[in-house]
Amino acid sequence: MYNFDLEMPSSVAEAVAALADEDVQALAGGQTLIPTLKQRLASPTKLVSLSGITEMKGVSIADGVLTIGGGATHAEVAADACAPVAALAAKIGDPAVRNRGTIGGSLANNDPSACYPAAMLALGATIFTNVREVAADDFFQGMFTTALDEGEIITSVRCTIPESANYQKFEQPASRFALVGVFVAKFSDGVRVAVTGASEDGVFRWSAAEDALSANFSSDAVPVAPNADGMIADLHGTSAYRAHLVAVMTKRAVAACG
Description:
Blueprint: E1 5-7, H1 12-18, E2 24-27, H2 33-38, E3 46-49, E4 59-62, E5 65-69, H3 74-80, H4 83-90, H5 95-98, H6 103-109, H7 116-122, E6 126-129, E7 133-135, H8 136-139, E8 154-160, E9 164-171, E10 178-187, E11 190-196, E12 204-205, H9 207-215, H10 239-257
Parallel strand pairs: 1-3, 2-3
Antiparallel strand pairs: 4-5, 5-8, 6-7, 6-8, 9-10, 10-11, 11-12
Helix pairs in contact: 3-4
C-alpha cells in the first residue's frame, strides 16, 4: 500500500465538499477499492471515508416500502431488510466482507457479478443520491458503469416490497460472486426478472421471462434460455453455459417464491 490522505466527514455535505478536491476518491466499505489500490490500478492521493456518516445508515420497513441507507453494511441488510433482500445479503462473501462492505459501495461499483444490482433492478428500486433520485432501470449502464456523476454519493435506496420474491445464486466457489444470479420479484401488476453474473453488459432484465411469468407464474413457464450472444465466457464457463444457468436459476427462484 502507498501513502495517501484520509478524510472522515460526519455528514453528506462534508463528504461532497471533500470529494470536490482533485485526485480524490470515496471510500465506502473498501472491499473493492482497497485491493485496487494495492494493485496500483488506482492511486488517488486522498480517500474520503463514508463510514462515519450517520444519515447514510439504517434499514427500515414502513407501509410496504423498504429503505436502506447507502452506508448500511451487508450484515445490517441481512439482519433488518425484507426476507428476499436479507437472504441475498446474508450470502455475500464471508463474515469479514459482510461486516465491512456496504450496499452503496456495491451499487456504485456495479461489478457485473455483484448481487445487489439484480435485487434493485428486479424490485424496481429508486437510488437516492446527494443531488437526485434515479430509477434502477436507468442507473445501471453497463459493466462497472452507472448513472453516477463524479463526486455523487448514493445516500439510500428505496423499493416497494413485492408480493413474493426470491434470489438464486450459482456461486463461483473461490470468490463467492455470482457465476449467475437471478432475482425474481412478483408484483400485483407483473413480474420482474433481473440477472447478474452472466452478461458482458452487466446486470440486465430478462424480458422474455418477465412476459411469460406475468402470464403464468410457474417454473414451467420459464423460457428455455436467453440468447448466449453477449454472455460472459471465461475459465469458469462458456457463454452457452451461462445462458443455460440463467434459465435454471430463474426456475429455481420462481419455485422458491411458492
